[in-house]
Amino acid sequence: MDYKELIEKLDQARMPHHVGIIMDGNGRWAKAHNRPRLFGHRAGAKATRTAVELAVEIKLEVLTLYAFSTENWSRPKKEVDGLLKLVKEKLYDEMPVLHNNNVSVHRIGSNMNLSDEYLNEIDSSMSTTHNNSGLRLNIAFNYGGRLEVIDGIKKLYAKAELNPELIQELTPENFGDYLYTAGLPDPDFIIRTSGESRMSNFLLWQSAYSEILISPLYWPDFDKVAFLSALLDYQNRKRRFGGVKAK
Ligand code: IPE
Ligand code: IPE
Ligand code: MG
After folding, report:
1. CB atoms within 10 A of CB 8
2. What is the pTM (predicted TM-score) of this model?
3. Measured in angstroms, how far is the CA atom of residue 89 from the centroid of ligand 1?
4. Least buried of 4, 40, 155, 222, by fewest C-beta within 10 Å?
């Protein structure tokens, strides 16, 4: 099916509120094209733009894109430096278009290992969009799910110094208030490209009941048709949340 047929099939009443994407496979895509890994990351950035465009077109509420994990620091310095530069440049270049499309762009992740100068640069380009009411776009950058939980526990303890009852009042429902995604719905649907069947430390707390789709495509090849097909797959699923309906 082509783009037009797929978009017509999409059921607005069964849209996921929040989609997360583990954008994997840039390196293997580059290798398959006999090019350096950074060439793959640049091609991946184009696919990212396409995915955001579609999210705007279909009026998705929240899109979280995994761009750089806390474990990705263990890659060769040249690749890490290239990735940091690419993220900064793309955020800067794309911000006017994102802003015009009413997208609100946020960074979720840790500040660890990043310079104040770098953080100021990326955060200031995003902050102009924070009053926008359209798509909420989270860039999971220097993000790790385990670190997020630990950061959350630290936030809770800092608050509990003044309000000790917060510890007793903690529940699986309200712990999310201490996470980077506070106030947002949990991801209904998580897509991972390039065929790997693992979470790689992405939204560990929030994905408790997420539907998951593994696409065999490398991220640079993940186009609007692939994204729409994934969403249609989601819409055909039955979510049960551990329950059984009374007959
Ligand atoms: C995903 O592509 C991008 C990042 C992790 C930053 P990879 O760089 O992991 O590509 P593969 O998995 O080596 O193909
Ligand atoms: C997950 O991909 C991280 C991002 C897409 C940013 P990785 O390529 O880092 O994950 P592993 O190493 O295959 O688990
Ligand atoms: Mg990878």
Report:
1. 8
2. 0.98
3. 18
4. 4
